[in-house]
Design goal:
The structure is a single chain. By secondary structure, the protein is mostly helical. The radius of gyration is 20 Å and the shape is elongated. 35% of the residues are buried.
Length: 177
């Protein structure tokens, strides 16, 4: 696969799952290889990985990303993130990605709550501050948004999106003379 020989990689992964149908990593590799070309076949492979290991948070996460990005199934992805959270309440990416999906669904308060939870678990998760800032802006809470963008920049002073959002918001909230 790393050598760019996709067809050979697919054949090898298929041989692997024929010999050992419980090989989750091979099912996931097949799903990724087919995700662009044949999304329905990719779903089949993700489902096989989850049949073998229904509580595997990596498999659940990868399928959730696939559903959100390839199949535009945001609700299906959210369900998988809920399952991940029920299995591992410390899995901050499930909260972060749920928040992003809620933003896409215009459920802004739900998004902010997910970003809050991600930050509680991992206080240095820079992107959670940035996206919570976006949610706060959308909820017409400019000072909270400024605080979040500033915190994102304290954690990563190279975070251009946070810097741009902070500058824009400051210029909008500064009284004009």
């Amino acid at each position: 696969e790393d050598m760019g020989r996709r067809d050979q990689a697919i054949n090898n992964y298929q041989s692997a799952v024929e010999n050992d149908p419980d090989m989750v990593e091979a099912w996931l590799a097949l799903a990724k290889l087919w995700s662009e070309e044949d999304p329905d076949l990719a779903v089949f492979f993700y489902d096989n990985a989850l049949r073998v290991a229904p509580s595997d948070t990596i498999a659940l996460h990868e399928k959730a990303l696939f559903l959100a990005n390839q199949k535009d199934d945001l609700q299906g992805a959210l369900e998988l993130y809920r399952k991940i959270i029920s299995l591992n309440q410390q899995y901050e990416d499930a909260y972060l990605n749920s928040g992003l999906l809620y933003l896409d669904l215009d459920s802004i308060e739900a998004a902010r709550q997910q970003f809050d939870l991600a930050i509680q678990i991992e206080p240095t998760l820079v992107s959670a501050y940035y996206y919570r800032g976006i949610a706060n802006e959308l909820l017409n809470e400019p000072q909270l948004a400024i605080n979040d963008y500033e915190q994102a920049l304290r954690l990563n002073d190279q975070y251009k999106e946070a810097e741009e959002a902070l500058n824009r918001l400051r210029s909008e909230t500064t009284p004009q003379q």
